[in-house]
Design brief:
Blueprint (H helix, E strand, L loop, with lengths): L24 E6 L3 H13 L3 E7 L3 H19 L7 E3 L2 H5 L6 E4 L8 H8 L3 E5 L5 H14 L3 E4 L6 H11 L6 E8 L9 H4 L16 H5 L26 H4 L1 H11 L9 E6 L14 E6 L5 E6 L3 E6 L2 E6 L5 E3 L31 H11 L7 H19 L5 E4 L4 E3 L3 H5 L17 H4 L4
Parallel strand pairs: 1-2, 1-4, 2-3, 4-5, 5-6, 7-10
Antiparallel strand pairs: 7-11, 8-9, 8-14, 9-10, 11-12, 12-13, 14-15
């Protein structure tokens, strides 16, 4: 039996009583890989409105290391030994804890909807890493969020970065005139440079015994049963369609997200998508495309080009353009006046309490999430907005896998129409079965109502 977590007194956290223990959001972290144990845990520990009370991972070593990191951080802050952060190997045990208010889901993509759906039905608020696995799963996520009225944040720090907010404010307040074209550049994926730790290990590309401490069957979850291979599990699952959609869904979730926000199309999407990519042999350990060229057209005539180069976004309007080239790189513009806008008396599409300077600082998606948990307002990157962004990547992958087909998409029905619609609507990037017992049909039976 796991003992209940202990909320640390506000004074012990050095908060001078500003955030009482009863007012903090008790967080459970599901997924203790690099982005869970690093980025998300660090942000939650630093946020006075949150406290991490439980962690979970299918890899025992990662789980215990994350539990220790959390307990050590609170011990240092309190000046006395703290062991209040519990650990679980099964996400259902963490979600069913009564002392957990909300969960942060930092798993591989094929778990990004099933776990949040369970958590929301169990009465928890959710902040979940992007993206979804399929178009259909994204719609299910949005529907459950609306039905349960739980707070949901699609986790992407970009909406809190000041320069991205500046681009959005400039576009949405008309300083570029009518936005007519958007360019989104994403870094190439599936490269040895991004996976150098395994690229020179021949054994990493062959079936092997499951490492001690890894619950591989639970790691697979709803995905098909396949032999354990090191180079398609931790981190590198991103390059296999069983678990993700490649760099297009990974990085695209950040920058296509900003394009959608700036274009005021958060709750819709393009009506036409066509793309080409360089896919390795299907069925390989990595089978997503590392490079691509995609063209999208919206119903109002706005076009969006997406290709692989370096992270960048450019908005081109009838009265000028703004460009950010590089990850949080400097802004450039067609006219220097566009770089010093003040937006006085205009609408601010950012949230000051969440804003992070491009050079670093406080704020971010967890600040916004915690405020929304308390206020019960919508987060700055809702389930619906995330789903619409991810759908663009899924549609583009379908187009590329269908040989560069020009696909007609209906954002209202969320179905393909016209040529090759039947193939596209049945494509595995649009819909796919889940492996028992890890299905939506079983979610209600996991909820401990006792």
């Amino acid at each position: 039996m796991t003992l209940g977590a202990t909320l640390i007194p506000a004074s012990a956290l050095g908060l001078d009583g500003n955030v009482a223990a009863s007012e903090r959001v008790a967080m459970g972290l599901i997924g203790c890989g690099d982005h869970g144990r690093g980025w998300n845990l660090d942000l939650m520990i630093a946020n006075p409105m949150q406290q991490v009370v439980s962690v979970c991972d299918v890899d025992e070593g990662r789980m215990l290391a994350t539990q220790k990191k959390a307990n050590d951080a609170y011990t240092e802050r309190m000046g006395t030994t703290y062991k209040g952060c519990t650990a679980h190997g099964d996400f259902r045990d963490l979600v069913n804890r009564k002392d957990v208010d909300a969960v942060c889901v930092v798993t591989p993509d094929h778990w990004h909807v099933l776990i949040p759906v369970f958590a929301m039905k169990a009465g928890k608020d959710v902040i979940c890493e992007k993206p979804t696995l399929t178009i259909e799963e994204g719609r299910i996520l949005c529907d459950v969020q609306k039905q349960t009225q739980r707070v949901f944040q699609t986790a992407s720090e970009n909406r809190s970065i000041d320069r991205y907010q500046y681009i959005v404010n400039a576009a949405r307040n008309g300083h570029l005139g009518e936005v007519r074209n958007i360019k989104v550049l994403l870094p190439p994926g599936n490269t040895a440079a991004r996976s150098v730790s395994i690229s020179d290990e021949p054994a990493a590309w062959e079936p092997a015994d499951v490492p001690k401490g890894l619950n591989y069957d639970l790691w697979l979850g709803p995905a098909p049963v396949k032999p354990y291979i090191k180079s398609r599990t931790h981190y590198n699952w991103r390059w296999n369609f069983d678990y993700s959609g490649g760099v297009l869904t990974d990085w695209g979730s950040h920058l296509v997200n900003i394009a959608q926000w700036a274009n005021n199309s958060d709750d819709t999407g393009p009506v036409e998508v066509q793309g080409t990519g360089d896919f390795p042999d299907f069925g390989a350990v990595w089978n997503t495309t590392p490079t691509f060229k995609i063209n999208c057209r919206y119903a109002d005539g706005v076009t969006m080009e997406i290709w692989s180069e370096v992270p960048a976004i450019k908005l081109e309007g009838t009265e000028g353009w703004l460009l950010m080239r590089g990850w949080r790189g400097p802004l450039t513009a067609s006219d220097d006046k566009l770089l010093t806008l003040q937006f006085e008396g205009e609408k601010n599409f950012g949230r000051p309490e969440s804003t992070v300077p491009s050079s670093g600082g406080t704020g971010g998606e967890h600040i916004d999430f915690a405020h929304c948990v308390k206020s019960r307002k919508l987060c700055y990157y809702t389930a619906e907005s995330g789903h619409r962004t991810h759908s663009i990547a899924h549609i583009a992958n379908i187009s590329m896998l269908l040989g560069g087909a020009k696909l007609t998409w209906n954002p209202q029905t969320e179905k393909f129409e016209g040529d090759r619609a039947d193939e596209a609507n049945k494509h595995f990037c649009a819909t796919r079965p889940q492996r028992e017992p890890w299905t939506f049909a079983n979610v209600d039976s996991w909820i401990n109502v006792g």
